[in-house]
Amino acid sequence: MCEGAQKKIMNHTFIPYGRQQIDEDDIQAVVDVLKSDWLTTGPKVAQFEEAVAGFVGAKYGIAVSSGTAALHAAMYAIGIGPRDEVIVPALTFVATANCVIYQGGTPVFVDVQPDTLLVDPEDVRRKITPRTKAIIAVDYAGHPCDYGHLQDIADAHGLRLVADSCHALGAEYKGRKSGTLADLTVFSFHPVKHVTTGEGGMVVTDHFELADKMRRFRNHGISSDHRQRESLATFYYDMEELGYNYRISDMQCALGISQLEKLPVWLERRREIAKRYDSLFADFKDIAPLRQYGVLHSYHLYVVKLSERIDRDAVFQIMRKNNIGVNVHYQPVYLHSFYRQLGQAAGQCPVAEDVYGHILSLPMHAGLSDQQVERVVMLVDEAIKQAN
Ligand SMILES: *Cc1c(COP(=O)(O)O)cnc(C)c1O
User: Fold this and answer.
1) Would residue 24 be called left, alpha or beta, if left means φ above 0 and alpha means ψ between -120 and 50 degrees?
2) Cβ–ligand 1 contact at 304 (below 6 Å)
3) Is 275 among the catalytic positions?
4) Is the CB of 66 under 6 A from ligand 1?
5) pLDDT at site 7
């Protein structure tokens, strides 16, 4: 690279791997709530639930304070408790496994397939025991898992199928939207996800009873909420079971409603960016984008695998030095010290452990320009030349 080009690159501002888009409509929507009577447990919560459930084609949405709270609510609703085992892919965010522990259950880690990094159905089969109660599938990067196959396994063993679709809002599998592919589906509205509420999450489902249970769970286990009591002019409430305060506010839901309107355009942009990366990397022999199998991808992440001979950590450092917010998703969950203390040992999911050393998440969000994508690719090219 000539000196002039180097300088120009160094002067560029930081490009994060993920970022929210906030416009004046979003801001106004939040301000409107601030001027209204209901800051929480008000009309925006139900409206947001209906909007998300409507978008994905599910009957019910239960909005909560985070994706993690949504996972916890899902584990509660399907009755996970002590001595129960839940199958969880090794390559995911820690919350996917933590939610099982919150309920006193045991996460059993399964390996992923090397080309997609999605849960390997054969390993799921191998790790089912008489204690297994459920499978949590993770739509890694935004590629829906093989739900046909997973549902067959779940049916054969009488297991619940839960989708951690925090990466996959707007994705489709065989023409069916993510949100309709499992008994319960969890979304997150953290700022790096497709649509944000600051912090927030939702479970969507077609099961009325599970939905009802989760509505109580997010409100201490109390059967009515503040607004219902207000409208009935009663003070009386009954706490029927132990729940939490996992409520989300009306400010957050107003932001979510406003964000959701833009989701189709943002999904299209993410897909365009992915296509651009794919074609720019087409003749890079040390870079392999993840494979895709006949799904409509939602591209929460754009992940590449670097070939064995490239030092991934060096590439990471060079990219960061050049102001590119690359990342690594994820360290296999059971390698975290908390899980090792629980007795989880290395070696149980060899594909996930190996691939962890070679993956890199490149910037992917709707606000990226074509020029930024090209700059990322140009810098990856430089970095792999320096790093091998
Ligand atoms: C983001 C995420 C979560 C948790 O969501 P929060 O809203 O941050 O609690 C869970 N699982 C996966 C796979 C995620 O990416």
Assistant:
1) alpha
2) no
3) no
4) yes
5) 44
Distance 133 CA to ligand 1 centre (A): 22
Does residue 387 or residue 175 have the better pLDDT?
Answer: 175
| Cβ contacts of 104-109, under 8 Å, gap ≥ 24 | 104/80, 105/75, 105/80, 105/81, 105/133, 106/131, 107/333, 108/132, 109/332, 109/333, 109/334, 109/344, 109/348, 109/349
Mean pLDDT over the full length of the chain: 95
d(CA 72, CA 98): 8
Higher pLDDT, 308 or 233: 308
Task: State the pTM of this model.
Answer: 0.95
Answer for the pair 214, 223: CB distance below 8 angstroms, yes or no. Answer: no
Rounded Cα distance, 205 and 214, in Å: 11
95 in contact with ligand 1, CB cutoff 6 A? yes
Q: Which listed residue (127, 133, 177, 193) is catalytic?
A: 193
The best mutation among 68, 185, 194, 202 to test binding of ligand 1, ranked by most ligand atoms within 8 Å of the C-beta, falls on 68
Q: Is 327 touching ligand 1 by the criterion CB < 6 Å?
A: no
Residue range 202-260, pLDDT digits in tens: 999 999 999 999 999 999 999 888 788 888 888 889 999 999 999 999 999 999 999 99
Residues in the chain: 388
Instruction: Name the phi and psi angles at 374, rounded to 5.
Output: -65, -35
Which pLDDT score, from 0 to 100, does residue 12 have?
65
- Residue 126 pLDDT more than 70? yes
- Residue 237 and residue 276: Cα distance in Å, rounded? 56
d(CA 248, CA 64): 5
